[in-house]
User: Fold this.
Amino acid sequence: MGLVLVFGGGCYFAEPSDVRPLTLQEERAIGPLNAGLAFVPYGVAANALGDIYVVGEVDGELDLPVLVEPLTGSSHGSRGAVVLSFDASLEYRWGVRFQSATGEDVAHDVAVDDAGDVVVGAAAGDAFVAKLSGTSGTPRWVEVFSDGPADSALVAVEIAPDQDIIAAGYHAGMIAFDRQQLPSTDRQVPMVVRLGQDGRARWTKHFLTSGPAHEFVDIRDLAVTAGGSIAFAGGKTSDAAVDFGDGVTLPEGEIFVLGLLRADGSTSWVRGHSTTTARGVSVSPDDRLEVVGTDRGDAPARDTRYWRYDLEGAIECEAVEDLRSSFDTGRAIASSADATFLASDVSGSADAAALTRIGPDCEPHLEASVDNVAAGLAHDLAFDDARLLYSSTTQVWDLG
Assistant:
């Protein structure tokens, strides 16, 4: 298997001695056929057959079916949320675009359930979740959760063992999930939502900080354990204490790194650190929680940091990777039976990225440097049965 490269300027399939356009470029006007188009991929996932799903945003005209219901209006040609599908041979299968009247639609994350349906977490001014047929892109349903004039988004989605949908993001205004409501606040507030397979909310939860209005907690990623517990990772902008509900708080002075919810939404535990913040979390095959983030250390230096936790919240090991720079940011993580991979930005540049492998010994091993991994900020990593998929600001790689 070669590489799939999804550039803002084009879409290509690369073998060592050949580069040829994908049919997506030829038929859907991505790249040279529309030089004004800017496509940014964010989330990537694969199903059991090896079909690949990429979600992100596009700024410009794109010849794809436009889904506007139940979103209202259309401003076709402005910023839109896009879902693209490729088969295991990297041939284009289908694509759809969500376009609301706001013209500010972004698809943040994607997951695939056991039936092969594709679940997308997104924002269009309001947060929304869409379930699409994995074979055709036909929508099963789209649920929009409005918080009035305030912005909200769902930036991470995962599938629970019972095939419920877990989504995380943020809101500011009062937001309604069916008959359940989260109250309006004076700041951006992180939330976690459990939806049934039909999109109806089973429970909702948000977390409040005691600091000033401009200070908030940020949830950036989710992972679900084999037993159905929900791990969530992120950071916060202040030293203020945070109430995670059910008697669990993060004390003043600690930066949020990782938390675990039970399947019913109650909070089991949270963990913090004085100098670190988390960007991604995954569950290993042996049910360990693996986290990637950034150790700020002595500002302004930053290094990619890795933690391995057990399900009780105890750290089993941790590692720091200095990627040839004083400004590294660990952003994405994926676990397999053999190894765990981290994707990082290097030197704070949109042109630099690195891929690191963490073995059972918890030692970091640089697999690919800024010279031979996709340029651009790291966004997502995903494993299917045989491949590691990596997305950045400018492209998506099938790393074999």
Observations:
- DSSP finds one helix and 36 strands in the chain.
- The mean pLDDT is 74.
- The chain has one domain: 101-398.
